[in-house]
What we know:
This protein has about 260 residues and is an alpha/beta fold. The chain has helices spanning about 20-25, 50, 75-85, 100-110, 135, 140-145, 160-175, 255-260; strands spanning about 5-10, 35-40, 55-60, 90-95, 115-120, 125, 150-155, 180-185, 230-235, 240-245. The strands form 2 sheets. Strands 1, 2, 3, 4, 5, 6, 7 and 8 form an 8-stranded parallel β-sheet that branches. The longest helix is centred in the N-terminal third of the chain and has 14 residues, at about 75-85. It is globular, with a radius of gyration of 18 Å.
Amino acid sequence: MIKAIPTNLITGFLGSGKTTAILHLLANKPSDETWGVLVNEFGEIGIDGAMMSGKGAVVREVPGGCMCCVAGLPMQIGLNMLIARSKPDRILIEPTGLGHPEQILQTLSGEHYSEVLDLKATICLVDPRNLKDQRYLDNENFQDQMALADVIVANKTDCCEDSDKARFDEFCRSMKNKAFKTAWVAHGALEHQWLDLPRGHQVALHPDAHHSHSAMPETVPLQLPDGELFIRRENKGQGHFSCGWLYSSMLVFSFDALFH
């Protein structure tokens, strides 16, 4: 018998602190366990995967766009390779902040992974300050990231005021789909035991809300063409834009100039 791998989806809109939260979990994981992280960024050139490398986990990136596009094919390829090559004791999946979690959860709980993955609680991070911004409140993907979460975590609370906490508490009380737990943390300090909470049966408010973000079906790492010192890549979706550069290691920047 092969034991199913405990798996968690870590969601949250752009800038909510998902990568910082995963780094905190990796820093506090059991030392005898190998964890796998499947990470997808809105940008065509990934940064999160590089930040996580060497932090006690095997990292696989799904670059550019959204892993739930193209019927989940980019995600499935990356996930299958992660499982086959590292045989992790736990898997954390971080989709892009613009992603809709519905199709990802359907894929992870579907027939292909029913005996491979033990799908646990979905944890959604939110910057409470954004709950006073109507652009967030009106965004259907943001609404469903919250609605489909089993644990809703207010992050970056060291930057918040008392009114932000009151607004967060009221928002959670008003939700139609009730999460198992809500929490108030700083610096992505998630509790390890939250990962083992069961997955609930929350229902998406807008199951057809997802929009494609020019997903890249290939999962090979982005590389510099021969003779080039850098490349520039752009992506856009839902009124948001990303621009990233990949530089040759031959280039040396001035720290002072870059910092300023």
